[in-house]
Amino acid sequence: MHQHSSPQQRNKEIVRRFNTDFIGQGDITAFNEIVDPAVINHTALPGMSKGADGMMGLILLFRKALPDLSVEIADQIAEDDLVVTRKYFHATFTSEIMGIPPSGKKIRIPVIDIIRLRNGKYIEHWGIRDMSQLLQK
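Above: the chain sequence. Below: its structure as tokens.
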């Protein structure tokens, strides 16, 4: 990290690391270093915890069904304590997820998320995921 990077630039780097190291590689250490234990996920799936455990659980669920999951970051915008990321999950859909049977096809899931950071850690999350490719036969 550069000495002269702005707080916004540092926040973008933290979000990028979460995507590459935790979502892309399943690195639990990165998750624990980046996510505040008091985090609130405002767009948790129904029935899932809105806390850190739910966030970790969802990604580990994705990684199990999509073992070759990788993240492509298209855009990042940072202002104040917020980072908005437009990204794509790329994967081969090889095992059931959330009751949806696998297609064996390569899929691309567009995602936009908003992260609020405090002291370099995720404190709030909002996200929109287009899961329609999971439902295509």
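Residues 7-23 form the longest helix (17 residues).
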